[in-house]
Amino acid sequence: MTKLTAAITAVGAFVPEYRLTNKILETMMETTDEWITTRTGIKERRILKDKDKGTSYLAIKAAEDLIRKGNIDPKEIDLVLLGTATPDMPVASTAVYVATKIGATNAFAFDIQAACCNFLFGMATAARFIESGKYKKVLLIGADKMSSILDYTDRTTCIIFGDGAGAVLFEPNEEGLGLQDEFLRSDGSGREFLKIDAGGSLLPPSEETVKNKQHYVFQDGKSVFKFAVSNMAEVASKIMESNNLTHNDVNWLVPHQANKRIIDATANRMELEPSKVMMNIQKYGNTTSATLPLLLNDYEKQLKKGDNLVFAAFGGGFTWGSIYLKWAYNTA
Ligand code: UT7
Questions:
Q1: Domains, in order of start, for the chain
Q2: Is 261 in the pocket of ligand 1 (CB under 6 A)?
Q3: Is the separation of the CB atoms in 177 and 166 below 8 Å?
Q4: pLDDT in tens, 160-182
Q5: Which atom of ligand 1 sits closest to the CA of residue 261?
Q6: Closest ligand 1 atom to the C-alpha of 156?
Q7: Probe target for ligand 1 pocket from 21, 118, 158, 225, with the most ligand atoms within 8 Å of CB
Q8: Does the Cβ of 156 fall within 6 Å of ligand 1?
Q9: Per-residue pLDDT tens over the stretch 18-54
Q10: Is the CB of 35 under 6 A from ligand 1?
Q11: 282 CA to middle of ligand 1, Å?
Q12: pLDDT confidence of 1, banded at 50, 70, 90?
């Protein structure tokens, strides 16, 4: 029997219209466009201003874009996976709501939570379902309304993040294209460096937690940076090694967009020239679960069937990893 691999066959995306530029941030807090640009590479990020819309809104829009572009019948989707660090609600899976809203009425659905590795770990999860032979269409969405958990008086953290969503469809492939290999890691000793303290079972919401701003993201940027730089570079070079890939074999690095300096360090370690490195951090900032599919959407037209893509990400928890995937289609 031919071995089934899990290939990406369609891509979609959505970002809200409002652009929060570095210049606007200068009017809100003690910061400068120059500091943000040189320290992070970010120029602007998109923000979902509507108070009555949550992450599901972004996810639905991205999925609808994919369904339209890929000419997909949503009733044929078997599984909807949603990577998000900002679900609509703590209980009641956002993925389930999204699946119903997009008309994927024959699918089952669940959320994935591994912070900035949501999409990367989601790719590995989607692949297992496809490779089993039982599921033919798995929709993986990465969506986050990061603005809902940011303290806009904390200049060390709020300047990095933005809102957005991206989606890919995985389908079985018999030509050996799609996901080839993965190297996924986690380390719970990292949770003190990047977290939301309150609102979970450990510290339920109270007047005190609201007063102490414990429902916002806390990040010890310097420590996270140190771990991210070394670990993302390490897993990216490791996956190349174990698949006998040299820098000449890799067509694209698809790196999580947290900081341009982290991306550059990863590319350097892989000995990749900048033209092979996908980057859109300047436009969107760090959209957590959405960075990788937003890159695929932006670069889709440049991707060719058979291209070797190396994905790499690092996130809170800590979580990190790399994936080697062969692109499966040309865009007409
Ligand atoms: O995606 C999930 C994983 N997350 C990441 O990978 C993020 C990793 N961390 C980072 O990207 C960086 O640590 C940051 C961009 C968050 C911060 O950059 P940094 O170079 O590590 O800055 P820092 O925190 O060491 O701060 C350096 C200085 C400090 O001033 P002093 O103490 O040297 O006087 C900060 O107070 O820069 C100051 N600073 C700012 N100045 C202007 C911090 N934030 C700002 C700001 N504008 N927005």
A1: 5-176 (3.40.47.10), 179-326 (3.40.47.10)
A2: no
A3: no
A4: 999 999 999 999 999 999 999 99
A5: 11
A6: 44
A7: 225
A8: yes
A9: 999 999 999 999 999 999 999 999 999 999 999 999 9
A10: yes
A11: 17
A12: low
Token couple for 183: 């190297």
The catalytic residue positions are 116, 256, 286
Determine whether the shortest distance from the Cβ of 281 to ligand 1 is under 6 A: no
Task: Please tell me if the CB atom of residue 228 comes closer than 6 angstroms to any atom of ligand 1.
Answer: yes
Q: Say what the pTM is.
A: 0.97
Q: Which residue's C-alpha comes closest to atom 12 of ligand 1?
A: 221
pLDDT at 332 over 90: no
Residue 92 makes CB contacts below 8 A (sequence gap 6+) with: none
Per-residue tokens: 10:
């369609």
